[in-house]
Description:
Layout: E1 8-9, H1 13-22, H2 25-45, E2 66-70, E3 80-84, H3 93-113, E4 125-129, E5 138-140, E6 145-147, H4 168-182, H5 190-212, E7 222-223, E8 238-239, E9 248-249, E10 253-254, H6 270-273, H7 279-292, H8 300-311, H9 318-333, H10 338-348, H11 362-369
Parallel strand pairs: 2-4, 4-6
Antiparallel strand pairs: 1-5, 2-3, 5-6, 7-8, 9-10
Helix pairs in contact: 1-2, 3-4, 4-5, 5-7, 7-10, 8-9, 9-10
Amino acid sequence: MHTHHSVFCITPPHMLQEIVRNGSSTQRDLALRTLITSEQMRGQRRAIKSVAAFMGTAITAGDKQRSVYDAKNDSQLPGTLVRNEGDPASTDPAVNEAYDGSGVTYDLYYDIFGRNSIDNKGLKLESTVHYQKGYDNAFWDGKQMVYGDGDEDLPPADRLFNRFTIALDIIGHELTHGVTQHEANLAYWDQSGALNESLSDVFGSLVKQYQRKQTASEADWVIGEGLFTSNVNGVGIRTMKAPGTAYNDPVLGKDPQPGHMKDYVRTIEDNGGVHINSGIPNHAFYITALELGGNAWEKAGRIWYKTLTDKLQERSTFQQACDLTYEAASELFGANSLEQQAVKKGWSEVGITVGGDAPTGCLSAILGVFGISARAEK
């Protein structure tokens, strides 16, 4: 098995670029440093050939093992151990949020899908908080979670981001990148990359809904709830319920996500728009879950989980995701079941028809013109 771009960051590059364009000098400085750091991290991890080096200590099924480290505003990972499994709560809210958030994520995967941690082999859940100074991001680096503190050192009027452990859906999102890495291992560009991002949003949102015991209709379907300070006009980084409406802010710009194939964004930025076009499969899941009612993890979540673990492959497209979730629904709930019809409706409402032929992404199209088959980075 190979990994692609093993560092998966929550803050989309387009958002940081908008801050560099529109922000105050201090805001611009932090955004630029975050962009550079995130790219450097990606560059370092591209050399990784196998996830074998990242297999943590195997533990008994159902036996959570969590460790939280403090980077003390440095870049050295993992940092100083500050809380181990079973230790009492810390006086540091970031430590407790990282500990509790990874625990709830573990619980959703174990209780609902029978999965034993990120790799299904009991991988220890390690998190590092207080990474660098003014780091406006959080990421999964192939073996652990890393969280920045946002803009806590800026004057109150300049602060855009709170600490990144504050949003449970971000924790669930990033840890799900680890699940995808060990399963479909979706190549991180174009539609397969957007599916990679979307699956993290799906299960990140389900982690939050599971913790709050919310039904599909009660949930907010926002990713990054609570991450923005009151200075930002927005509810979060993305919304699965209404892609393109999560934020509209003078500094951060406007949410660029489409919710339908007719608005698909063809770009070579952001690995072919992985953080942008993910709005389309996100909305398909939201419609499916709403159509089925009740708790989204019980039916829609099981269909998407089976698709991720049994069906999707490295270069899967939106069209294939549509067909494979439809197939998974039949296998789980029966052909022509209400569940299968809900999946069909979910994709149909974003412009993708079961058995149809939805277009592929921009990078694939460009390469195709030159007769080159797209190869994922190994």
